[in-house]
Amino acid sequence: MSAAPHRRVSTTRLVVVGLAVCAVLAGVVSAWASSNPDGLEYVAESLGFLDSARDHGSAGSPFADYGTAGVDDARLSGGLAGLVGIAVVAVVAFGLMHLLRRRSNDDD
Amino acid sequence: MHVPDGFLNAPTSVATSVVAAGAVGLALSRARRELDDRTAPLAGLVAVFVFAAQMLNFPVGAGTSGHLLGGALAAVLVGPWTATLCLTVVLAVQSLLFADGGITALGTNVVLMAVVGVWTGWLVFVGLRRLVRSAGVRAVPALAGVAAVVSVPVAALTFTALYAVGGHAPIPLGELAAAMLGWHTVIGLGEGVITFLAVGSIIATRPDLVHGARGLTAARELEIRTGVPA
């Protein structure tokens, strides 16, 4: 490939930097996220239908409610859960998009 | 806006699951048009970013918080069909692994965020882009931000409509609509800011990858490529 007139960020570099940013957001910054109920939960509570929510089918998951079972430190527990989530979403999403993409030599 | 199990009755949850399955099935075939060797990695990254950003609840006052839905952001960056898939992957992982959003409510959450959020965002974006076409690629982040602002209250109203059909508890609908709309308009402003910044950062580095900027990309210098088969 010839030298482009101005250097642009390669896709690989973009993805690596992007994933690193996401890992910091989910693994570290998430400890400072607001723990107040979100809009829907708040509305459900104030109008009195929050109680109709049933226990979650995945409540027994080791990462239920963005914590890591067996890790006592709240920041570590939440950060680990965030990193696990990043990894799982990455594997599924990158894999799915890779399978679905048109190859450059496809005739469509 | 993750709906837990039990808010909506079984028939409504079945109905939203059927709609969600249909939408995801269609997206699986249509997303091929949006994805190629260059854009597929960005689509993976968008899904990961939406997951990370959804962990970051920001306060919106009075003991309430909100987080990014990411529909408009994903649609503008990778195209609406691919965005539907990105959001669906995120919602499925959240429900199954993190107990966030009910399992029987997964269809409802896909409809609200992966269908209504994504497509409202995309259609508003496309409409605005038509109005200010001459502004070119530089306008894309701001247009995406505005589309994002609109998408959140529309998704909130869709929940209200679903609740009117199949809500488990009898709630005055006017009150529900007003409360959902009020809070989610404020949350929508946060959605707009995050979308503006995220789309802006990709426009600044790789505008050629941004689906919503196709056909707008301004004055890119021609490159001489070698080794490209004729």
What does this structure look like?
- The complex is a heterodimer of chains A (108) and B (230).
- Chain A is mainly alpha-helical.
- Chain A has one domain.
- Chain A contains 3 helices and no strands.
- Chain A has helices at residues 11-27, 39-47, 74-100.
- In chain A, helix 1 packs antiparallel against helix 3 (74-100).
- The longest helix of chain A is centred in the last third of the chain and has 27 residues, at 74-100.
- Chain A is extended, with a radius of gyration of 20 Å.
- Mean pLDDT of chain A is 89; it is low at 1-5.
- Chain B is mainly α and 230 residues long.
- Chain B has a single domain (10-213), classed as Orthogonal Bundle (Arp2/3 complex 21 kDa subunit ARPC3).
- Helix content of chain B is 67%, strand content 3%.
- Chain B has 7 helices and 2 strands; from the N terminus they run H-H-E-E-H-H-H-H-H.
- Chain B has helices spanning 10-34, 40-54, 71-78, 80-98, 106-131, 140-166, 173-205, and strands at residues 58-61, 64-66.
- Chain B has a two-stranded antiparallel sheet with strand order 1-2.
- In chain B, a hairpin with a 2-residue loop joins strand 1 (58-61) and strand 2.
- In chain B, helix 1 packs across helix 5 (106-131).
- The longest helix of chain B is centred in the C-terminal third of the chain and has 33 residues, at 173-205.
- Chain B is globular.
- Chains A and B meet through helix 1, helix 2 and helix 3 of A and helix 1, helix 2, strand 1, strand 2 and helix 4 of B.
Q: How would you summarize the topology of this molecule?
A:
The complex is a heterodimer of chains A (108) and B (230).
Chain A: H1 11-27, H2 39-47, H3 74-100
Chain B: H1 10-34, H2 40-54, E1 58-61, E2 64-66, H3 71-78, H4 80-98, H5 106-131, H6 140-166, H7 173-205
Antiparallel strand pairs in B: 1-2
Helix pairs in contact in B: 1-4, 1-5, 2-3, 2-4, 3-4, 3-5, 3-6, 3-7, 4-5, 5-6, 6-7
